[in-house]
């Protein structure tokens, strides 16, 4: 402190609030209205938050295991090709591993992007259409990836 500042002077942000100096009021980003009654509230956001934490842990194990097995133990990138994938996906274990990785990664990413859309899209219609686009892309990618994993034909010409 400088010599000009008295020691007993209140410092901004130091928590010295009084009736003459009230704390600032922080408004919620989107307050509830009559159109969104309290009875419609659920724990969906809590479940989404919990899903992000749990799926993140499982994804770390799946992805690091995938990288370790594919790149370190199986000889690196040079060995990965059509025959390598055909050999892997002949086993139900590797199909399930890749399927779980695909589903968790897509749902984890879609849930994160849904949160970003909810935070930053201000208009209800914009938020609705962005989420519909997100959900459509997620369902399409999960469906197509699942279809490829289970209908992969190593005898294709």
Automatic annotation (TrEMBL):
Tell me what this protein is called.
Succinate dehydrogenase hydrophobic membrane anchor subunit
Compartments (UniProt record): Membrane
Annotated region described as Disordered, given as residue ranges: 1-37
Main localisation, per the record? membrane
> Which regions span the lipid bilayer?
50-73, 93-111, 132-152
Keywords for this protein: Heme, Iron, Membrane, Metal-binding, Transmembrane, Transmembrane helix
Q: Which Pfam families match?
A: Sdh_cyt
Protein's UniProt keywords contain Zinc-finger: no
Q: Which domain of life is it from?
A: Bacteria
Record bears the keyword Zinc:
no
Q: Which Gene3D superfamilies match?
A: Fumarate reductase/succinate dehydrogenase, transmembrane subunit
């Amino acid at each position: 402190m400088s010599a000009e500042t008295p020691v007993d002077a209140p410092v901004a942000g130091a928590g010295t609030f009084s009736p003459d100096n009230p704390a600032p009021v922080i408004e919620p980003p989107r307050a509830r209205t009559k159109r969104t009654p309290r009875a419609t509230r659920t724990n969906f956001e809590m479940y989404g938050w919990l899903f992000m934490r749990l799926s993140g842990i499982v994804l770390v194990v799946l992805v690091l295991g995938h990288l370790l097995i594919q790149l370190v133990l199986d000889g690196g990138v040079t060995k990965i090709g059509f025959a390598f994938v055909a050999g892997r996906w002949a086993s139900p274990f590797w199909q399930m591993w890749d399927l779980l990785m695909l589903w968790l990664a897509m749902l984890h990413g879609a849930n994160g992007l849904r949160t970003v859309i909810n935070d930053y899209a201000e208009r209800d219609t914009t938020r609705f259409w962005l989420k519909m686009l997100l959900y459509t892309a997620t369902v399409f990618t999960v469906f197509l990836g699942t279809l490829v994993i289970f209908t992969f034909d190593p005898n294709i010409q």
